[in-house]
Amino acid sequence: MGAYILRRLLLIIPTLIGIMVINFALVQFVPGGPIEQVIAQMQGQGDVFQGFAGSGEDAGASAPTGDEQYIGARGLPPEFIAQLEKEFGFDKPPLERFLNMMWNYMRLDFGESFFRSISVTDLVLEKMPVSITLGLWSTIIAYMVSIPLGIRKAVKDGTSFDTWTSGLIIVAYAIPGFLFAILLLVLLAGGSYWQIFPLRGLTSDNWDQLSWLGKIGDYFWHIALPVVASTISAFATLTLLTKNSFLDEIKKHYVMTARAKGLSESRVLYGHVFRNAMLIVIAGFPAVFIGVFFGGSLIIETIFSLDGLGRLGFEAAVARDYPVIFGTLFIFGLIGLVVGILSDLMYVLVDPRIDFERREG
């Protein structure tokens, strides 16, 4: 197992490099950039997109060369544009910029945001609590509800319980998360009916004055609605996956043998079937967590006025804040690859009979 883990760890390096090469190359063909963003803001055009839209008949023309290569830069001193290029590092060729960036990343130096005067690491750490809150609690709730429900549906396969619960979770899966979040706001956060839950933030303004028990209650009071909105669509896939896994195992001969020996149904299900049926569910844990952690977080964070990684990524993309874009891409890519290795380790913990080295051989 040690050799297998070592090989997987070594594969992280070329995989990360491949991810960064592809995205860095794609960015070179995307119109706009940090310099255009600065020019647009200086000219009162808001952002780079408005700068392109407001360039009149020149917007559809080919990009000028030399000192006029930036649309909207006409009238600005060439020395100023050159200074901007030097500050952002665009006075170097793309290959040199990429190699310097990767060398810094390998030393865990992710640079500083172009527009926020804060290091990328500090910026990510500042936004991380919101995304961890949504991802962790949504995943825990999804597993705590879906696994027992899936087991029960497998035992009651074909009954009315199985039918109406399947309909319920499919309806929940079909509801868009952002629409359900708005519904929760309208009903429970003072939109039109009851003011039961707070509208924004992870904590109250008087957080520091609360007791430790009050802080715990205040924290869960604030995260209740966004976590529910993030979790609503996660039940269907996990529940049906658990049910089908149990149905496959229940039909096998070792289950009939265990029943023939007089073992109770609970002993058969949780002592024998559970370990084998949970392998595929555990294998999907990293995907569920990463999916909830990143997917849809922008909309949920915006609706509930939470300042997390979703909004950070969106704002960085709009502003062309390349250090934030590539720094977070590197960090999250590394997290995803490490979580994939952890899922293999969970396989072995659940069923020690699995030997990845023998399978590879």
UniProtKB/TrEMBL annotation:
Lipid bilayer topology: Multi-pass membrane protein
Chief localization: membrane
Alphabetical list of SUPFAM superfamilies matching this protein: MetI-like (SSF161098)
TM region(s), chain numbering: 9-30, 130-151, 163-189, 219-242, 277-304, 324-350
Nuclease as UniProt keyword: no
Keywords annotated in UniProt: Cell inner membrane, Cell membrane, Membrane, Transmembrane, Transmembrane helix, Transport
Subcellular location: Cell inner membrane; Cell membrane
Domain ABC transmembrane type-1: 128-347
Entry's Gene Ontology cellular component terms: plasma membrane
PROSITE patterns: ABC_TM1
GO biological process: microcin transport; transmembrane transport
One Pfam short name: BPD_transp_1
Cited InterPro entries: MetI-like, MetI-like_sf
Matches recorded under NCBIfam families: PRK15133.1 (NF011712)
Similarity annotation: Belongs to the binding-protein-dependent transport system permease family.
Protein name listed in UniProt: Microcin C transport system permease protein
